[in-house]
Amino acid sequence: MGKVFLWIAAVLLIVFTVKTQYLTSKTWTPFKEGCMAGGTATEAQCVCLSNYVHKNFSDNEVEKIMQGTITDPAIRRKVEETVRVGAKACKAP
Questions:
Q1: Which member of 26, 47, 73, 80 has the greatest number of CB atoms within 10 A?
Q2: Which helix (H) or strand (E) segment is 30 a member of?
Q3: 15-28: per-residue pLDDT in tens?
Q4: Whole-angstrom Cα distance, residue 58 to residue 84?
Q5: 3-state SS class at 70
Q6: What digits encode the pLDDT tens for the residues 31-68?
Q7: Are 56 and 90 in contact (CB under 8 A)?
Q8: Residue 77 and residue 64: Cα distance in Å, rounded?
Q9: Model's pTM, two decimal places?
Q10: Who has greater pLDDT, 92 or 14?
Q11: Is 39 left (phi over 0), alpha (psi -120 to 50) or beta?
């Protein structure tokens, strides 16, 4: 019976490690903090907007959005539209 618990603990440790190291967004918090720095939105609205943007774009794309390095006009319009719709949806979460 002890070996079963040992195996369960090992599997849970592996799942925890994979989830925290590989499945979490590295741009979510900086995006939310950037939103908060604007001073016009509440924390709940920034959390909502960060969730909305991260549902539509990958971490790499969000990083480029925050750095302002998107050069393709079509992608820039998509970003602007996504942020506009997300901000409207998150106005009163």
A1: 47
A2: helix 28-37
A3: 777 666 665 678 88
A4: 18
A5: coil
A6: 899 889 988 889 999 999 999 998 999 888 999 988 98
A7: no
A8: 14
A9: 0.70
A10: 14
A11: left
Backbone angles phi, psi at 28, to 5 degrees: -60, -55
Nearest to 50, CA basis, from 86, 80, 93, 19: 86
Do residues 35 and 41 lie in contact, with contact meaning Cβ atoms separated by under 8 Å? yes
d(CA 42, CA 69): 27
**Nearest residue to 30 via CA among 45, 49, 50:** 50
Question: What gap in Å lies between CA 93 and CA 90, rounded to an integer?
Answer: 5
C-alpha span between 90 and 69 (Å, rounded): 25
List the one residue out of 49, 5, 50, 43 whose CA is nearest residue 24: 50
